[in-house]
Amino acid sequence: MRKKLYQPALATLAACAALFAGPTLAGVVTSSWDTTSPVSIPIDPMSGSGPQIAGVSGWSNTGTGGKLQSATSIDYSGGMGVRNITEGTSSPNHAMDNYGTTDSILFSWSEAITLSQVTIGWAAYDADITVLAYTGAGTPTLTGMTYGSLTSNNWALIGHIDGPDSTYPNTSTGSGTDTVLNVASTAIKSQYWLVAAYTTLVGGTSLGNTTKDYVKIAQLTGKWDQPEPPPSAGESVPEPASLLLLGLGLSLIQWNRRQVQNNS
Questions:
Q1: 73 pLDDT band (50/70/90 cuts)?
Q2: What SS3 class is residue 3?
Q3: Mean pLDDT of 19-41
């Protein structure tokens, strides 16, 4: 008998609780973007919804005084590389490298992310990289800057990442072995991330490695804040109605309590 008497009150209380719970925040989500051939801009996440890579551009310090100039960013089966104006088309020149001049790729997302991993899809000699994030307002401009001036122009050095040189041959033929490099932990969120062949021109602590690096980027992984989904039709309840339902639920609980006492 008591069980039956409590059932209406419990059902009402559950309904009230559901009304006040509201939608759940999705929180931080991790996504990956494939940068191997064929690539078309924008680049969607490999699974699920999320920010797109809205732009990709190659850069190299081939200008007078080491100033940055636009270079050709190329995607191959092994990943995305760079060929600057001083380089030919033969291997390994189509990779992003630091031999003579230093190449880099600017990735632009549709919304801010925190870059957490860079996957090297092809490399020769060594696979060290340098990662920076833009912390300024608006869209960054690299033309006419040097690598050395980036950190004084709203670019934060995230770190130099030591790739496994023993994995790759010391020849221009290279190797297509995938290697995941973990980016240094950071709380920085940005729409603009610059990935370069390892260079101390931007500052930071040297890796102590003088082997030249030729790399192609096959995949990028990062974290982003998934917003709270909008309420569906009928999900939102006006505040007065919510209070009325809560009051009704409490009244039913008291009524059930009296009934139980009377039937004891």
A1: confident
A2: helix
A3: 76
pTM (2 decimals)?
Answer: 0.78
Instruction: Kindly list the distances between the CA atom of residue 176 and the CA atoms of 71, 120, 218, in Å, as whole numbers in the listed order.
Output: 23, 9, 10
Q: Which residue has the higher pLDDT, 61 or 177?
A: 61
Tell me what the mean pLDDT of segment 15-34 comes to: 66
Q: Whose structure tokens read 């790739």?
A: 163
DSSP secondary structure string for all residues of 197-242: ES-GGG-S---S--S--EEEEEEEEEEEEEPPPPPPTTT---HHHH
- Alpha carbon distances (Å) from 101 to 64, 74, 87, 132, 207: 12, 17, 10, 18, 18
The DSSP 8-state label assigned to residue 40 in this structure reads -
CA 32/CA 180 separation, integer angstroms? 12
Residue 217 has pLDDT above 60, yes or no: yes
DSSP class of 19:
H
Counting every residue written for the chain, the total comes to 264
CB 224 within 8 Å of CB 29: yes
